[in-house]
């Protein structure tokens, strides 16, 4: 019976290898890669074209490349004045800094609050724990468009410091502005909305990682004299590094690309890059080349952040896989 089993296992392995090399698999894989990379490549090529070439249907690589679109997009941070421009109306530098501040701070605060909340929901026993855990995921299912009007009303009316108070007068003297001091039109207001929007998913995804950590590791650390915070920061956090990286990618990309809530809560001093791209389109004039160039500049930080966080996922998954 043993040789027969070995023969069957060999045939099964050979069959699996044959199925993996089926041409249809590679054809499907190539189609998926083309669907994912194709639009990015098209946007990259069109960013070096003039609007005449884009609208005229010039296809392929048969065109004269130009960097005018990137000069127009980056006109406020260039050390020289482009020859084809008389006035710099596109403030990409300020919008880029606003997006970077909002995305990084909201991502960091969401991870800090989310990992602590997830650890409490997994390790601590209290009344309504399962209900709270389920509710956090249900809140994430609410579309952002539903929250637009309520959040805008709260940020403009309820959470405002009256201009007649001492604090409101001091803030207006130090930072400028008119009327009451509200969260709408500030970086803090947008960051708070993004934290509330992304926190339920971060808690949910980190719970699945914390559950897999054996309690014996934490108990052994406590026996050695480690306190609660030492157990959390030195034992738990290093073990859930892949989950933190995955949650960071998710949170950063949403905060970086989000448009709807930011368009309602920001002003001209706090607008982000997605708002800048949409504002560059009008009813009578659409500068396609500038939009493509701005879109490529918008994609670069997200790609870099994703690649960096992905390395943390791989490092966490392979840590301890090979014994010395």
The helix count comes to 15
Helix content: over 70%
* CATH classification, class level of the largest domain: Mainly Alpha
Task: Give the overall silhouette.
Answer: globular
Q: Could you give the topology of this structure?
A:
Elements: H1 2-20, H2 23-46, H3 51-56, H4 68-73, H5 92-123, H6 129-140, H7 144-158, E1 160-161, H8 166-175, E2 181-182, H9 187-210, H10 215-223, H11 228-239, H12 241-257, H13 260-265, H14 273-279, H15 288-318
Antiparallel strand pairs: 1-2
Helix pairs in contact: 2-15, 5-9, 5-12, 6-9, 9-12, 10-11, 12-15
Describe this structure in words.
There is one protein chain. The protein has 2 domains: 1-42; 94-318, MetI-like (MetI-like fold). The protein contains 15 helices and 2 strands. It has 324 residues and is an all-alpha fold.
